[in-house]
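Whether sequence alone determines local backbone shape is best considered at the level of individual chains. For completeness, the protein is quoted in full, as a sequence line and a line of structure tokens:
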Amino acid sequence: MVQAYILVQTEVGTAQEVSGSVSEIEGVVRVDAVTGPYDVVVLTEADTVDDLGEFVVSRVQRVAGITRTLTCSILQL
């Protein structure tokens, strides 16, 4: 199991709508609206790193209102 945080920038005024849309996607564990350079932080999980990449590109980045994402994989140290 691979987990990652996806940091999301949204169009102005769409963070709440984006949060709601992303939270309905299978594989999303948690969604939080935040302050700072990113508007939404998404905790997600997938079976493999390849599945995670596919998930971000094919599911998350296609949500209306998202302008940019940054994926931060969680390491098990």
About this structure: Residues 35 and 77 are 28 Å apart (CA to CA). The radius of gyration is 12 Å. The chain has one domain: 2-73. The chain has a mean pLDDT of 95.
